[in-house]
Write a structure and sequence with these properties.
Layout: E1 3-5, H1 17-26, E2 34-38, E3 43-51, E4 58-66, E5 75-79, H2 85-98, E6 102-107, H3 118-131, E7 139-145, H4 146-150, E8 159-163, E9 171-172, H5 173-176, E10 183-187, H6 195-203, E11 207-210, H7 218-232
Parallel strand pairs: 1-2, 5-6, 5-10, 6-7, 8-10, 8-11, 9-11
Antiparallel strand pairs: 2-3, 3-4
Helix pairs in contact: 2-3, 2-7
Length: 234
């Protein structure tokens, strides 16, 4: 069953124009048909269509159910966007399908891209979440300065890691993650983090980690980090 996104379902029981068009015009749903909805915050709703209009499809809720997350921890990726925006968009799509909970875009010393279209990323996240029937939408955070990000307090004891390619005593990420604990992983730009950035991260409690023997592109590293964290907790 197709999953429709309805963030304001508590106050408005009508699909927005885009979702209405897909529901009525593309999928050919009509009055009386049952559809599956989510608010993006973990609740799914079974609803019955009461007005099959292609611009404002109305419905009534039949039942609702709070869904458990697929993994018992919060996964936060902080990634420096690639020069080619399509590559980071691909990463965001796949990480959403796998189970990323939040994403922060990092502005680093060697960053070649300092802006991203957040509206486009939001659409990609929404499409990926609906495709994989995920009732939890990841939180997207706009571009943030690296130093400002890594010096944030960590009152909840989140496991923080920085993946980089410098020669250093590093363990594999999969061997560092403790099951059930929240995880945050930093992925650098195509020129990697600077030595000063790595030093600052280590001073603020980040552990240096490796993602394997291969030298990975930024978007591949983000995907590997996401999959590793979810797999360890499966």
């Amino acid at each position: 069953m197709y999953l429709f996104y309805t963030p304001d379902i508590a106050t408005c029981q009508t699909l927005n124009e885009e979702e209405s068009g897909h529901c009525v015009r593309v999928l050919r749903n009509t009055v009386g048909d049952l559809i599956l909805l989510t608010d993006g915050r973990g609740t799914t709703y079974t609803a019955r269509i009461t007005e099959a209009h292609p611009k404002h499809c109305a419905f009534e809720i039949v039942s609702s159910e709070k869904q458990q997350k697929n993994h018992p921890f919060h996964l936060h990726l902080a990634v420096a966007p690639t020069k080619n925006s399509e590559r980071i968009e691909w990463m965001v799509e796949k990480c959403t399908e796998i189970g990323m909970d939040s994403l922060t875009l990092l502005c680093c010393r060697y960053s070649e891209r300092k802006q991203m279209r957040m509206d486009r990323l939001e659409k990609i996240v929404l499409s990926a979440a609906k495709q994989s029937l995920t009732p939890y939408l990841p939180v997207l955070n706009d571009m943030t300065d690296f130093a400002r990000f890594v010096t944030r307090p960590n009152p909840n004891g989140v496991q923080r890691f920085i993946a980089h390619c410098y020669e250093q005593d590093k363990r594999l990420l999969k061997d560092c993650i403790e099951q059930g604990r929240d995880v945050e992983v930093l992925i650098g730009p195509e020129g990697d983090f600077s030595e000063q950035e790595i030093s600052l991260a280590l001073q603020n409690g980040y552990q240096p980690v490796s993602l394997g023997n291969s030298r990975l592109r930024t978007e591949t590293a983000g995907l590997v980090a996401c999959h590793t964290a979810v797999l360890v907790n499966s």
